[in-house]
Amino acid sequence: MTNSFAQDVLAGLTATEKYLSSKYFYDDNGSRIFQEIMNMPEYYLTDAEFEILSMQSKQIHEALQFSEPFNIIELGAGDGFKTFKLLEYLVNKNIDFKYVPIDISQEAMDILTESLRERLPTLNVKPQVGDYFEILKVNRESNFPSLLLFLGSNIGNYSPQKATELLTLFNKNMKNGDKLLIGVDLKKNPITIHNAYYDSHGITKRFNLNLLLRINRELDADFKIDDFDFYSNYNPDNGEVKSYIVSLRNQTVNLKKINKTIIFGYNELIWTELSKKYDVKEINTLAKSSSFKVQNNFMDCKHYFTDSLWVK
Ligand code: AVJ
């Protein structure tokens, strides 16, 4: 097998219930489509978290109770747009800290660093490209307290069990007293959630079908995009948004690079994403199960979203 993308695609498309991992949405094109999603009025998550980080920077900083200097390590920083307000507040207050954004995309880190040099020239920023845990290991040797940021409801893509595993790994790479600010999307009117993920503009559909284009390109496959559709559904009983690609006909697809033909039935689904919504009680359970203590929940005024501050 050539690489893990090929292996994962093969495993997912040969399973009885087909699936593809949402982590593969984010090639350059997918990252751009995700920016479009964040700009849709229906995708309330971005605005809600932006409100929290811009209106409550002071409260968040006070809640840290850190000695200076300290570190702010952001996991999956992306374009760092939301974090900017928090950084700006701290810089303007002359607070002594180092900002370490981490992302798998070199391009995203270059853009972020460039824009921060321009907009916050006195900010001490050390961007890192690569695997979270390789970089987090270094944190354990730092003499200074650290705040980890895991924003944007990225945790929602993991099942509660997988989320616990990931957060336990974060915890193991933290020092006692280090804190984690984690963005979690809250349960709310199911229609509001439905509209954020099954949008009438078709942007989220494009986001999903882009994964088939990626497979075409990287695995020399022949998905006919027009023969697939998109469906997404929120289940208020368990807080799960599940997203799918739908085959609109009986069809076969060849993945030439890995010498594999996949058969799709009429209306057969490929499950592509979980976006889990939590309530405060479930957040407490998740924190506890990964050895954290919840210190504060910083919510937007509509209580759509929380940046939850956890202590190790
Ligand atoms: C980037 C994982 C937070 O699940 O809300 C947006 C991705 N998927 N619309 C989310 C996404 C469909 C998003 N996260």
Automatic annotation (TrEMBL):
Record key words, sorted: Methyltransferase, Transferase
Pfam families in UniProt: Methyltransf_33
Protein name stated in the entry: L-histidine N(Alpha)-methyltransferase
Species this protein is from: Winogradskyella litorisediminis
Domain Histidine-specific methyltransferase SAM-dependent positions: 5-310
